[in-house]
Amino acid sequence: MRILVLLAFIAVVPYLAHAEAPAREVTELDAARVAAAFAKGAPLLENDLYKIHASRRDAAGVAEVHERDTDIIYVLEGTASFVTGGRVVDGQEIAPDEIRGPRIEGGTTRELSPGELVVVPNGTPHWFEAVPGPFVYYVVKVTAQ
After folding, report:
1. Percentage of the chain surpassing pLDDT 90?
2. What would the pLDDT profile of 85-128 be if each residue is shown by its tens digit?
């Protein structure tokens, strides 16, 4: 787990020079808190530069586009069909810089499994099209300023 935090930090470093950084304190989350977050899927840490989520899916999701957030996804458990690119069908802005829709047309499908890492640049449509069982993963969202 510690290597994942290191990966998250490495991803955030280029943005530190362009935005006000959060407090320069080391953050440690104990194993019980992390396990509880993965049990239901929940944010672990969020600030203006990045978000770290303990994510869990038991079924397909909706198509998403984050205009400012790059998603760095590291798979811990399970498999999923993940579609990127293409066009979000019937997309609606649900919050500033966040678009959701029922599916993607014309994207590329990847089969994700434990140990894989996927980087989805901001502005790129993405969708967990099929999730046959529990799918557990970290998401580090790096926010463009």
Report:
1. 81
2. 999 999 999 999 999 999 999 999 999 999 999 999 999 999 99
| Alpha-carbon span 59 to 113, nearest angstrom | 15
CB atoms within 10 A of CB 134: 12
Distance CA 35, CA 144 (A): 29
At the fourth CATH level, the homologous superfamily of domain 2-143 is Jelly Rolls (2.60.120.10)
CB neighbours of 51 closer than 8 A, spacing ≥ 6?
43, 45, 69, 139, 140, 141, 143
**Could you tell me the CA-to-CA distances from 5 to 9, 96, 110, 140 in Å, in that order?**
6, 27, 25, 9
> Among 5, 6, 127, which residue's Cα sits nearest to residue 66?
127
**DSSP secondary structure string for all residues of 70-97:** EEEEEEEES-EEEEESSEEET-EEEETT
Contact status, residue 131 vs residue 137, Cβ threshold 8 Å:
no
Cβ–Cβ under 8 Å, residues 15 and 51: no
Other Cβ atoms within 10 Å of 65 Cβ, number: 22
Angstrom CA distances, 2 to 38, 54, 133, stand at 16, 14, 26
